Structures are given as C-alpha cells and as structure tokens.
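Appendix B. Raw example, untouched.
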Amino acid sequence: LLCYDLRNKNLTSFRIDYIKDIKIGEECPNFDEFRESLEKAKKHMWGVVIRKRTEHISFTVEINNDEYYIVNRLNREKRIGTVEKIDDHHYRFSAEVCDSWELVPWIRTFICRICEINFSNPIHQKRFMADFKKMYELYK
C-alpha cells in the first residue's frame, strides 16, 4: 500500500499483509498535493521504495550481430530510465532510481552480457561485485 505517512511527513509503502486494522477517517484536504508528490516520485521508482534522494545505476551489455532481441528486451522491460546505443555491439541502460538494489534481480538476467556496471551507491556496487565473485567461484 502506497500512502502518505502523516506522522513522518513522507510517502511510504506498507506491506498489506502487515496491516492488522483500518478505520475510515475524515476526507483528506491535501489529497491532490499528496497525489502530486506520488506522481513526481513514480518517475524514479522501480519497485516500492520511495526516497527523496535518488541513486544512479547504469550497466552496459554486449550483443552479437544476431542478438537485437536483447536490445528489444532492455527497452520493453525497463520501467524507467533509458537505453542508449554506444556502438553496434554495446548498449547502456541507465536510470535515476529511489533504490538501485531493486533492479538487481532484473540486471542479473543479463549477467553474461554485462561488460560494465556502475552503482552510485558504493554499498550496492560492492555487494553486487561480491555476489558476482561468489557465483564465479561456484562455477569455475
């Protein structure tokens, strides 16, 4: 459930299965203002995390001549952000997001094609590379 938290004065999300009780209150006089805040936040939301500060994420994939379906997939599956052609064999996805870690499951589906990845959040960069190294150790 996405809503405006009056106590903390920000947009937030709650898991519906954690809500134990609800009650109908007064009509919200600031509804339009809160809706506008949500519309601005949606431009940077990949999943359910909402933050005022954004993080940058980008990764470059390499494709062969007969693999333009990968570029189509990038364009079709991205929720936000851009796909940029670097040359005939390299394309870069980049976005400003509320939480760059939310993209990791999707990014992993391109793992054998990724030739560069950058998280502006150094914790996420380090974690992704550590996970990748662990996976490599399992399969080498």
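End of appendix B.
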